[in-house]
Amino acid sequence: MSAAFFGSIPAMIVLSGILVGISAALLGSFLVLRGNAMLTDAISHSIVFGIIVVWLLTGHVSGPVQVLGAAMTGVLTVVLSELLARSRLVKMDAAIGLVFPALFAAGVILISMNARDVHIDVDTVLLGEIGFVWLNTVTILGTAVPVAVVTLAVVLAVNLVFVLALWKELKLATFDPGLAAALGFLPGVLHYAILTLTSVTAVAAFDAVGAILFIAFVIVPPATAYLLTRRLWLMVVLAVALSVAACVTGYFLAVRWNVSIGGMMASMTGVWFALALLFAPHRGLIAQALRWRTERLDHDCRALVAHLFTHQGTPAMPEENTLRALVSHLRWSEPRARAAVLRAHDRDLIERHEGLLILRPKGTAVVEAIFGRHDR
């Protein structure tokens, strides 16, 4: 990457995405672990209602009052959803699905009725256009800096201070809320604090990247990191790194292929997740398939030595203790039978002698252990 890149329009675009990605990943890691990830979807849509209400009351479409008002709408969405769920008439997922469409629809109606000539566009809120962040700038120390970058940098600083200052409390409240409450850590307050910051981040992000990309950053990198580790600190670090990587690669691929920058950044988070889903060392699909194959081979080995033990030394031994008998009597496919025999032979459980499969002392010990556990 050349030095001319830094300080340029592309740098501002990538930096905007990175700031959103890091801010979202910091909070999203705790939301994913708490099982509240999809609340971000509800918050990101319902803030449209808060934006238009604040505009109707104050006439402002940006600024601290707008951010605070829209953020409170996000918290209101969560509160109403939880109150509805506590009624026991509907479950939490249904409550969320009832509340946020209602607020979003109300916001859209208010926009269409009262703000047709004001720059509040629903498509912009949802999809954003990160490629245009450089058009609205403010001068800082003689340098024109996009307003979105300044706003997102402040939000990132607040989120980072919150997570670092309350790391122990957040960790305990996430994994053991009962113990956190007993120790006086107020897990309910921390829960709403995270959701409030999520709302603030969503409001700060929507003008630059839109709600969809914000949701992708909140959920996908932390979910990807969760496939790779169970250590909280490492999960947060990986989520942040994946967000940054998605922004950088997403920008350059979008330019190369002449497609939406925000869409490509969101797509890259999905690419990282797909790769982790396949290749994660312990929890990936390939690792699970290999583990399942190993477990099946081990099970077949135990079944094999038990079968041989049952017939060894009996008149039926010449017929039963053969590869052919495994196929015909145990109804195994020939490849499965051969794999079990090779596995047992490699483990020194059996030996071959003139076409017969004979237990070795180690194999006999395995069978005795199996029958011994069964007898107990």
TrEMBL record:
Residues that span the membrane, as ranges: 12-33, 42-61, 67-85, 94-113, 133-166, 178-194, 200-220, 232-253, 259-280
Major subcellular location class: membrane
Membrane topology: Multi-pass membrane protein
Keyword Transmembrane assigned: yes
Keyword Transmembrane: yes
Keyword terms of this UniProt record: Cell membrane, Membrane, Transmembrane, Transmembrane helix, Transport
Annotated compartments: Cell membrane
InterPro entries: ABC_BtuC-like (IPR037294), ABC_TroCD (IPR001626)
Pfam families: ABC-3
Sequence similarity: Belongs to the ABC-3 integral membrane protein family.
Name under which the protein is recorded: Metal ABC transporter permease
